[in-house]
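Forwarding these from the shared drive since the link keeps breaking.
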Amino acid sequence: MKEKSQDIREYPIQIQNKFSIGNQFMPEEIWSKIRVLTSIQPKLVLAGSLSLHALHLVSLDFNNRTPDFDFALREPLTEDEFLIMKSLFNLKTFESKYEEDKTIHESDILKRDLIVFADEKLNYIDVFNKEYQNDMNKLYPVNFGNHITPHIVYCQHPSITISHKMKYAFLENYHKKDKHRDDCIDLLCKNYNRIINQLNILNTTRSKFRNHINNNVKPTLIDNLKHELDKLF
């Protein structure tokens, strides 16, 4: 029998509810956009400040701050997946912030380390197209749905987000330098102990999920069918 999947989305609703993290409140427009994007493209992993908020590590003040939509990827996007995202949301791509893309072919855009989308209101969606987050054991599942119809969105490990903030805080002439500096002070100085305690809770929940599926979850009918097919071929 093959190793059991570590993707909580492939398990029954009861398991998804039990071992996922309840989403912290965020404005409807932001919450629904994350849901729709990750429904259309499940390779997306929530990153940036919104991931820290979703994991209850920070509480963003949405009245005074409009965070970008930052995503990592579990694996590279195909050209078809890229075009579906772009067309369904009527998005444009940008070579950099505020500079609309002049590249015509999708294959060239997909070679970039950072793919920048923007909608008609210039709300940016940054997709980090390197260092793929393909180890499910290092991601945290957050339920953006409810107990009846869960919608799991994976968040990247906060150490990655914080390391990026450290980089931008020291980046010369970067227009958001001060914001990232202040975030680092809050994360690593003022609230460090509280964040570590919350991270311990997240890690414990993730470990319980792994132990549960490895010890208690019986193979499904599909698992058994795959096993029989593997023996035939």
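-- next protein --
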Amino acid sequence: MGLLAQERMLFVLIFLVMCPGISSGDDLFNLTEVDYFSMRSSLKENAEPGYHPPQVVTDLLDHPDEQTAVAYLRWQRERLEKISRAQDILDKVMANYGDMYKIQ
């Protein structure tokens, strides 16, 4: 074993001795469950009163599998196509008026 490997092993041993919670299997930082994108809290606890995300979104988050992912992507594509059509109409209206402040 080289000198660098011995130093690393010594560091790990010292670390484990200094942090007994890690070596005993305890959760040192209370990170037993990680919610990386705050999906649970944003959908349930922090939601505005009366707001319910679309069912396709909750289906994907609650039951992530290929079927719910495909349904979500279809819904997202349809939603974006509607936004694109609305934007096209807005662009035409703006071209006719020249400035949105002239619209009364």
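Residues 40 and 46 are 9 Å apart (CA to CA). DSSP finds five helices and no strands in the chain.

- D.
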